[in-house]
Specification:
The protein is of the alpha/beta class. The protein has 22 helices and 26 strands. The radius of gyration is 26 Å and the shape is globular. It binds 1-deoxynojirimycin (NOJ).
Length: 742
């Protein structure tokens, strides 16, 4: 991956700065800055959301707006751009932006679903397509990827990121950035990416959105920061601060993370935007006294552009006059903003072709890629008696509130995806298989929160008249995403009853779960023979699921976030540190504890009396219609120097009846460190496609330097000592192989 990444990054910058070289750009910025009044500089630092166009245009004409967000009509964007370029004093173009999170019109699976593909290529392609569609409308900056590590599925925004693992999030985040920002052939069809939310937002206490994130400093560096460092190295053009505070300091006012780490240590020369009103919200946090104090703290900490708190435009001129912020600091911020506009070629090409903007949406190649992503993102969690694929059925009952829910299957952050263009599973099953299989449709519940059990007896009766039941359950789109945290992760409404009613028919039941997070589906597993977890699969989810159900495609998705038995286990993640009393798996659970048992802590371990210790399904888990065996896993040496690369070989064998893809995973454990280390950490993964019966010699190359972490003395380095390594199909399987780093 590495050489490719570096090449793309260099190319991206070359392309984006194609209007002129870096030095030319800096000279042009100098020239512009020398002409700008303080008010015009603050105007560049101000981002406004779509509103009354006449009013917006007046602000733009006065030079009070640097960027707009949420306008997607290319004609309106052109009109506003024309005011900026032709009617404002300095003619500086606007930077139009939007939350293009998992597609623009053609919606891909939600990012958590995309993460289940473990496929950087499809993620890069999805982001490229999003950039093509959105930039055609004039949107040149997206607030994506969200690379927050999320270890708690109660947090609704787990849907928007790549799950719980640092390595996976880093790799997929980089792929997404590369896709948005393009390469030298991408021309104007690029968007600046935005690595967000810097930092620690995913660790919201209790999974409650916007809450403080209690992250210890070394954990911040070892777990939460690497995806952001990778984003800088990949050339991410912008960063967004996060809403949360860590240890008393809101991110938007955190000089340590925004200046010491991001600028000084990582050398970021892009632009930093606040989150929506996160500067102003520092007042509610109790970190800033008033608007001016908030703006001063944000800009001094290193925020360049204010998203919608209006505190910069409203107070910073006065703050500069009072000496609370230096004009040099303002100039630096404006320089970062102008550099971005030059790199995007906005000065040369501010307008878009409105006709092309309409033509390019939903191009056949875009839909094909969205379908591929949806196929790869589905995880097979259960398949008793080879219920799937539905090879020999002649009739099915399609039921459940998600079978034909075009809006909801798009998931969170699908502002521009359209239900009218969405292909639902019901429509696809009828279109693709309706001539071979009798398809009966009876939803029984109208939406995922529907509690009405009145139709369930009829459902059972109808199920008896078919060969199999396919029940589409899950979450409506609005039940996950920003500000949509949950404390109970069971299926909502009467959906578990629906599965029970289907099972009561005695027919095989396939559950397809379309959701924004890993729900606690343990009790529902009892009421189905097979379960396919598709997350919210996007525009083409219907075709993807239909083909998976009938074996045209074979599931290959793997869990990017642990499936819990019970929400009470959260936060839960596979790469935790050991306690001094790790669970053994032989703990006495609640029903076995004798009455009037005397209290003892001797021999006790870390577990829950009711849900035990382990998860329902571990990180990395996912079945296939075939089976895979790992054999002969070996490494080339027993001891490695700090600059060595560990060469791992193994044989992967497809031992079943289907051609299929396995995601092989490489895990490592550092046995003794200057600080305690995770019991396993993902260090590599690859998708390997094998024909039925085929086996292949495969390799992983792991540079020893990737074992580095911030240790006791706050230095990041590889600590010598004993390690273990696994190659397996999930985070809980395989046998450890020992090695030593000198
Ligand atoms: C708030 C969200 O936290 C952020 O992710 C998003 O980009 C902005 N709103 C803009 O919509």
């Amino acid at each position: 991956m590495k050489p490719f990444r570096i090449t793309l990054t260099v190319l991206a910058f070359a392309a984006l700065a194609s209007c002129s070289t870096g030095n030319d750009v800096e000279r042009r910025i100098d020239k512009l800055l020398s002409k700008m009044t303080l008010e015009e500089k603050l105007g560049q630092m101000n981002q406004l959301s779509q509103g009354d166009e006449a009013w917006m245009c007046e602000q733009i004409r006065q030079g009070s707006v640097g960027s707009i967000l949420n306008e997607v009509d290319p004609a309106a964007i052109n009109r506003m751009q024309r005011v900026a370029v032709e009617e404002s004093r300095l003619g500086i173009p606007l930077l139009p932006s939007r939350d293009v999170i998992h597609g623009f019109r053609t919606m891909f699976p939600i990012p958590l679903g995309q993460a289940a593909t473990f496929d950087p290529d499809i993620i890069r392609e999805g982001a490229r397509i999003a950039a093509i569609e959105a930039s055609a409308c004039g949107i040149r900056w997206t607030f994506s990827p969200m690379i927050d590590i999320a270890r708690d599925p109660r947090w609704g925004r787990i849907a928007e990121g790549f799950g719980e693992d640092t390595h996976l999030t880093s790799e997929l985040g980089v792929a997404m950035i590369e896709g948005y920002q393009g390469d030298e052939t991408s021309g104007n069809a690029t968007m600046a990416a935005c690595a967000k939310h810097f930092i620690g937002y995913g660790a919201a206490e209790g999974g409650r959105d916007y809450n403080g994130s209690p992250i210890p400093m070394r954990t911040l560096h070892n777990v939460y920061m690497p995806p952001f460092k990778a984003a800088v190295d990949a050339g991410a053009m912008t960063f967004m601060t996060s809403f949360n505070e860590i240890d008393g300091i809101p991110s938007t006012g955190n000089e340590y993370i925004l200046r010491d780490i991001l600028r000084d240590e990582w050398g970021f020369d892009g632009m930093v935007v606040s989150d929506w009103n996160s500067a102003g919200e520092m007042i509610a946090h109790g970190f800033a006294a008033d608007d001016m104090d908030a703006a001063v703290k944000a800009v001094n900490a290193g925020v360049d552009m204010d998203m919608m708190s209006h505190t910069f435009i409203g107070t910073l001129a006065e703050a500069v006059r009072e000496g609370k912020v230096s004009e040099k600091t303002i100039d630096e911020a404006v320089r970062n903003i102008l550099r971005l506009k030059f790199r995007l070629g906005l000065f040369e090409n501010p307008y878009v072709d409105e006709k092309y903007a309409a033509e390019i949406q939903y191009a056949p190649a875009h839909l094909a890629a969205a379908k591929k992503a949806a196929v790869e993102s589905a995880i097979l969690l259960k398949n008793d008696g080879k219920t799937l694929p539905l090879n020999s059925v002649r009739s099915i009952l399609v039921t459940g509130p998600m079978a034909d829910a075009p809006h909801d299957q798009l998931g969170t952050w699908s502002f521009d995806g359209e239900a009218s263009h969405t292909v639902t599973p019901l429509a696809s099953l009828r279109r693709m298989f309706g001539d071979k299989v009798r398809i009966v449709y009876y939803p029984a519940l109208m939406y995922s929160r529907d509690k009405n059990k009145g139709n369930l007896a009829r459902l059972t009766a109808m199920a008896r008249s078919v060969d199999a039941v396919v029940a589409f359950v899950g979450e409506e789109a609005i039940l996950s995403g920003e500000a949509h945290s949950l404390s109970d992760l069971n299926l909502k409404g009467a959906q578990s009853d629906l599965l029970r009613a289907a099972k009561a028919s005695g027919r095989p039941v396939v559950a397809v779960v379309m959701a924004g997070r890993p729900l606690t589906i343990g009790r529902d597993l009892e009421n189905c023979d097979a379960m396919l977890y598709s997350y919210h699969p996007g525009t083409m989810g219907g075709d993807a699921i239909a083909e998976l159900l009938f074996g045209v495609e074979v599931p290959s998705g793997k869990a990017p976030a642990t499936f819990l038995k019970d929400a009470g286990q959260a936060p839960f993640y596979y790469n935790h540190n050991n306690t001094g009393r790790p669970a053994s798996g032989t703990e006495t659970l609640i029903d076995e504890i004798p009455l009037c048992a005397g209290q003892t802590s001797l021999g006790c371990t870390s577990f829950y009396m009711d849900s035990g210790f382990g998860p329902l399904f571990p990180f990395g888990y996912g079945l296939s219609y075939t089976t895979f065996e790992y054999d002969g896993i070996s490494i080339d040496k027993e001891e490695y120097g700090q600059n060595d690369t560990i060469h791992v070989t193994f044989t992967l064998r497809n031992t079943g009846d289907y051609d299929a893809t396995e995601v092989a995973q490489l895990y490592v454990r550092d046995l003794v460190g200057s600080i305690t280390r995770p019991i396993r950490e993902l260090k590599g993964f690859q998708r390997i496609t094998l024909k039925a019966g085929e086996s292949r010699e495969c390799t992983f190359d792991l540079p020893v330097e990737e074992l580095a972490f911030m240790g006791f003395d706050n230095q990041t380095r590889v600590e010598s000592g004993d390690f273990q390594l696994w190659v397996a199909g999930d985070s809980a399987s395989g046998d450890p192989i020992p090695f030593r780093v000198l």
